[in-house]
Design brief:
It is built from seven helices and 13 strands. It has helices spanning 12-27, 31-44, 60-68, 81-90, 104-107, 131-140, 183-192, and strands at residues 50-53, 73-78, 97-101, 115-120, 141-152, 161-162, 176-177, 181-182, 197-202, 219-223, 229-233, 236-237, 240-246.
Length: 247
């Protein structure tokens, strides 16, 4: 069976790097997060819903969406304890947002068709493949699933393993995947699970992001002659899409 879990076993130095990266998302909202808000607002604004944020990281997506849908209840799951600790700190004043440490594959079967809306943000491309996670999210969701990942419009999947030697985990093994999936195949799989409709929104970044250290895998932008920007991580073009699956 294909390994399905992301490598979360980071050392202390990696932990601080990850947390600092996520905190920047709160201090200055990412363009992709803003893009989600424009798409999801009609579905959550002025409504009382049960919304799943999985995996939630430090909870910044729930934190921002709560401003749009303060009558909804948000539930975040992540298998990294120190991410959940940070999420609870971020959202400590928001009584309608709760978090739990847990593996999505083990926890979500207990929440069969519990959530009106599920958000799976910037995750699928970093795990070995999406099939098992998508099945789990479908089982827990009643109406709509919103996710972001790297997709190619042709009939090809691209699998890439990233190993950052400057991080503790990278000294002994690769850190994570950076996969680009065939959207055609993904859509067919979603329909096979019972999706009624699958919509895709291409994300075009309108902000310049400076190039990081040559030894650090972090996204930056390259500006083309026509004024458009490509988002890049290391040597990999990052073709982000936001996907809306109606159930």
């Amino acid at each position: 069976m294909m390994e399905r879990r992301y490598n979360y076993h980071k050392g202390n130095a990696d932990k601080e790097f990850e947390l600092e990266s996520y905190r920047k998302c709160v201090q200055e909202k990412r363009e992709l997060d803003k893009f989600l808000e424009t798409i999801i607002t009609p579905y959550i604004e002025n409504k009382s819903l049960k919304i799943l944020d999985a995996p939630c990281g430090i909870g910044h997506i729930s934190y921002f969406l709560n401003d749009i849908s303060p009558s909804s209840s948000f539930f975040g799951i992540d298998q990294t304890p120190w991410m959940i600790e940070e999420a609870k700190k971020l959202c400590h004043e928001k009584q309608n947002i709760t978090f739990q440490v847990g593996d999505l594959y083990d926890v979500l079967p207990d929440y069969k068709k519990t959530f009106d809306i599920t958000i799976n943000w910037r995750t699928l491309s970093w795990i070995p493949y999406y099939d098992e996670m998508l099945k789990s999210l479908f089982q827990s969701t009643k109406k709509h699933l919103f996710l972001s990942s790297l997709f190619y419009d042709g009939d090809i999947d691209f699998e890439t393993k990233v190993r950052e030697y400057q991080k503790e985990v990278g000294e002994n093994q690769f850190n994570y995947y950076c996969n680009v999936y065939s959207f055609t195949r993904f859509k067919e799989f979603a329909y096979s699970l019972g999706a009624k409709d699958v919509k895709s929104y291409n994300f075009h970044i309108n902000k310049d992001i400076p190039k990081p250290s040559i030894d650090q895998f972090s996204s930056y932008t390259l500006k083309l002659e026509n004024g458009e920007r490509l988002q890049v991580g290391g040597t990999i073009i990052l073709p982000w899409k936001v996907i809306q699956i109606d159930l």
